[in-house]
Design brief:
Elements lengths: L1 H17 L3 E5 L5 H7 L8 E6 L3 H7 L14 H14 L5 E7 L10 E9 L2 E9 L5 H19 L1
Parallel strand pairs: 1-2, 1-3
Antiparallel strand pairs: 3-4, 4-5
Helix pairs in contact: 1-5
């Protein structure tokens, strides 16, 4: 956890130095990214807000196209990108948007859990996928996803 907080501190410092603001729309991480960032002093200078959009209805209310919330596409890169863009659009002056959606408790032991991550900054979008075996601890998967997101944010800004 200490390493994660050091990374979050870098993100907050870099955003602050560049005068940028960030918002997040999280699903399977349940607000973990926002929690990590807001554990850093000065986060209020860069974090405009975050939303946990766990249900399809919440994603639609934020502006994610309804067709993306069907069972087969709710866990997709398209949905993650739409969530990141919806977060930027919903915030009053956000520059960076993060969208996270995926599955961390897949019922089929033959299939890995997969999380889709999107970070948008202006016209640039970066994406990544995190995959975890079914037996992987849920809390650890969330931490790994948050770490991956923080690296992506640093890379895009």
């Amino acid at each position: 956890m200490a390493e994660l907080l050091k990374l979050a501190e870098q993100v907050v410092g870099t955003l602050k130095a560049k005068g940028l603001f960030i918002t997040a729309v999280e699903s399977c991480t349940g607000g973990g990214l926002a929690n990590c960032i807001t554990n850093i002093p000065g986060a209020s200078d860069v974090m405009l807000g975050a939303r946990v959009a766990y249900s399809s209805e919440e994603k639609i209310a934020l502006g994610v196209p309804e067709h993306l919330t069907l069972d087969e596409t709710i866990y997709s890169m398209e949905t993650a990108v739409a969530m990141a863009k919806a977060g930027v659009a919903a915030a009053c002056r956000s520059d960076v948007g993060v969208g996270i959606t995926g599955q961390l408790s897949f019922p089929d032991p033959c299939q890995e859990n997969r999380v889709y991550i999107a970070v948008v900054f202006g016209d640039v979008t970066v994406t990544d996928v995190a995959e975890f075996p079914v037996e992987y601890e849920r809390w650890k998967a969330k931490e790994d996803v948050i770490e991956k997101v923080l690296h992506l944010v640093l890379g895009i800004i």
